[in-house]
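Now for one record:
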Amino acid sequence: MEQFKFYCENKPTAGEIVQVVFTERKEDHTEGFLTEYEGNIIMVHAQATKKKKIKSFNKIIPLNKPLAAVIEDFSEDKNNGSVSRAYLDLPEEEYSRKFNNNSKLINGIYQICIKLNIDFEDIWKNKLFPYFQKSSVEGKSYLENFMECLELPDEILDNKELKDAILEKFSNLSNKKDVFKKD
């Protein structure tokens, strides 16, 4: 599942808040990648913060740590873009909640598919992700939307065993702290 991204082949749009991991700092910019989309990003250091003077880039743009950023522009042809952290209004924890929920959703379903010996990539890409995307409500994560209704129509998922396992796992999620490991 290492190569698999939450949003499949979809591309981020300008102004969208995404999760990034910066991997290399250069003289005037920092490079990295998107965690939930396929693609690489750069951020010029002037877009890191509104502050005029930066004492430590390690505190503002830590390397190898997931962070929220805003897509400034993204080239679908080249699969890369630029991001900014200067105009994020909320604390980092608020942005992290959405990304953590996405991770819980995809990893929980991945674990079930592995256990039942079902092709996760096909199920996610062709059935579940399009369903979650279509039924999403602005301002809520896909996990929050799914947990409110806890249903998967038969035309979306016709494998009863898989459907029951997913519904059971996520109905129990609100009752206990379930562990979702990245495999």
Summary: The chain is about 35% helix and 20% strand. The two ends are 7 Å apart (CA to CA).
